[in-house]
Amino acid sequence: MSLTTLPGVCGIGLRAPHYREALALQPELGWVEVHSENFFDGGTPLAMLRRVAERWPLSLHGVGLGLGSAARPDRGHLASLKRLVDETCPASVSEHLSFNHSPHRYVNDLLPIPYTRAALDAVAGHVSETQDALGRPILLENLSSYVEFPGNEMNEGEFLAELVRITGCGILLDVNNLYVNRVNLGTDVNAVLAALPLDAIGEIHLAGYSEREGMLVDTHSQAVHDEVWRFYREVIRRIGPRPTLIEWDIDIPPLATLQAEAAKAQAILEGRDGLA
């Protein structure tokens, strides 16, 4: 099975304030992405998502599996995700390269992991278990970070490349996260990009960050910043067009604003943004 069947255009993160409007107006959206966990309980949200999936290509983006955790993926969570995948037949399924739980505690955050061989072995096992449960490959998203573990044995790109090689998973390249890490941590983004297997990059995310006490925070609460647009343009020139998503999760604007942001990304994908 292919990593993703998303069309090579720009889509939007479809959030609760826009479900009814989108279904009523049927706007031209390249594709839509939702957070998987919001639909695990079925009922009205799932019924609405079925209608969405009938109209636009759908991507399921998880925030709760914590595949970078030391503990195995939660079986109940995996079962719920499997049911949702079977119900909606999404074009793409993705998760974060992060940890969030132990056998005794769950943290509602996406926390960074060490890039070591030991961590790689553990994460690869969790990714393989998840893919076996779902019966399909998933995409893993690079993370925004504010601290680095001492003793890293590889950069994030090399870590992801090894996961792709071992498990057959794909990559969700969050350009905003990579830019945030360059500013906050001095990450060599060229080295990260150079390490990634380009044919494994199945999706790109764009979002707006916030500035707090001299650091950039990946809040998804604003429009994409000019610096990130410029970086995105560089990435597309380097790797070629990829399905791209506009994420906006806090202080969510009108649907038309998301469509306008998507139009900017689409212009870059098509090489008609007017900049050399």
From TrEMBL:
Query: What phylogenetic lineage does the species belong to?
Result: Bacteria, Pseudomonadati, Pseudomonadota, Betaproteobacteria, Neisseriales
- Cross-referenced InterPro entries: MbnB/TglH/ChrH, Xyl_isomerase-like_sf
Protein name as annotated = UPF0276 protein VA599_06370
Organism per entry: Chromobacterium indicum
Query: This protein's superkingdom?
Result: Bacteria
- Coiled-coil region(s): none
Q: What family is reported?
A: Belongs to the UPF0276 family.
